[in-house]
Amino acid sequence: MPKLTSIRFSLFYQRTFYIRMRVHYDGKVLTVQTGRRLKESSLWDGENECVIVGAPGSPADAQEINHLISQWRNAVMMAFSRFAIDEVSPTPQSVCREFSKYLDPGLRPRSLRNDPTLDGVKRPGRPVGSGKAAPAPAPALAAATADMRKGAQAPAAEKAARRGRPKAAPGAKPGESFFEVFDAFEKNGVDKCAWTHACQQKIAALRADLYGFNPRLTFDSLDENGLTDFVVYLRKKKIPKCTIGRLAGGFNDDGSSKTGLADTTIKKKLGFLTWFLNFATLRGFNSNMAYKAFRPNLHIVRNPVIFLDENE
After folding, report:
1. pTM value > 0.70
2. Is residue 51 classed exposed, middle or buried when 0-12, 13-18 and 19+ CB atoms within 10 A define those classes?
């Protein structure tokens, strides 16, 4: 099974600053140039791997560049989900071709932008605002997910006892509950993708947030309004007190509990949610593509850069 280690976007200098993507997996590295560039390195946010929008000298298409970065990251994760289903160990060239299948022609790498063999590929889901339903999963894909569906149809009470968490909302049809699919997503990540313990904790925290937001959550309810409501919920949720107190951000200076997550944390949670929705879309559970175009107004505070002289 291919193990995706990281997807990183960074700058490299060659007369100007170009943006490139590096995918690390199974001890291999795929490097792909995005074709986008910046005049100065100060316009790049290395921590969040995006172009700083609105900064002096920032390119006019900064938001479009950030959108491309987001689409490339999601496409790579969908490509590796496909490799995990097919149980193949891809080469860097096959990774490049596979993730390009999930991109519009204008967003593909330059070398594959006019490749006719990619134009006939049916990408999962449907465009936002279209009235067409998502295409049915391919026969091979349906067969590969048979075990996952069986796991999703297990009794909810048994699964809740095994995982020590709230069961899916009552009244949901077997195999179609949002949280049952989420449980299958977690199981797939642990068994096939070898998630680290830290990654498992973050995904579990996202599930708890989604359940606290709406125990009867469905894929169709996560349209633009539903996603916006989820962001509002995260901004207003009460942060529980913790044993390490102020160092963990659990208290205000007066000792009262804090409420609301920082926008940086919300951005990370939305990234994990997009990862899950890509998983559900690829397997035919989700046909709501609103999450792909959802870009909330999040204020990401950059850490100040402090320059020291020789004496300091």
Report:
1. no
2. buried
